[in-house]
């Protein structure tokens, strides 16, 4: 996180010289100390984030793939003359321990065309689907498997 703060500082300045770099080191250290002290952050979380980079990248690849296929399915549904969509509200549970995993799953569902996360209460999700076929296997999707694996690393 410290390096991200430093990189952000350099990006905001638009140029790099020794003075800007040294001042950025001091400012970034102060901000990093502040978030560690007052916002329940630690170096352990940084290490955990670095370890999880591969899984997070895979999650992003799966998300992009699912968005592509969901777009394709919505297009087929919209342009089909013979098929009438049957909207559905689906409830399912996903037993996550962290709030981050819950939010990632809810946002991934919402980012995927044809589905919207309506609410998350505890481990119970409420999802609106443009068609009831979009809800098939939602509780055991790739998103859920990857997020469980991610939580195991945390």
Give structural notes.
The protein has 154 residues and is of the alpha+beta class. It folds into 2 domains: 2-47, no CATH class; 52-153, no CATH class. It has helices spanning 2-13, 18-38, 43-51, 53-79, 99-111, 142-153; strands at residues 88-93, 115-121, 124-129. It has a 3-stranded antiparallel beta sheet, covered by helices on one side. A hairpin with a 2-residue loop joins β2 (115-121) and β3 (124-129). α1 crosses α2 (18-38) and α5 (99-111) runs antiparallel to α6 (142-153). The chain is elongated. The two termini are 17 Å apart. The mean pLDDT is 90.
Fold topology:
Layout: H1 2-13, H2 18-38, H3 43-51, H4 53-79, E1 88-93, H5 99-111, E2 115-121, E3 124-129, H6 142-153
Antiparallel strand pairs: 1-3, 2-3
Helix pairs in contact: 1-2, 4-6, 5-6
Please give a quick description of this structure.
With 154 residues, the protein is of the alpha+beta class.
Task: Write a concise keyword list for the protein shown above.
154 residues, alpha+beta, 2 domains
Structural class: alpha+beta
How many domains in all? 2
Strands in their spatial order, largest beta sheet: 1-3-2
* Average pLDDT level: 90
Biggest sheet: strands, sense, closure? Answer: 3 strands, antiparallel
Helix content: 55-70%
Terminal CA distance: 17 Å
The succession of helices and strands, N to C, reads: HHHHEHEEH
Q: Categorize the overall geometry.
A: elongated
Number of helices: 6
Rg for CA atoms: 21 Å
Beta-sheet strand percentage? Answer: 5-15%
Low-confidence stretches: none
| Strand segment tally | 3
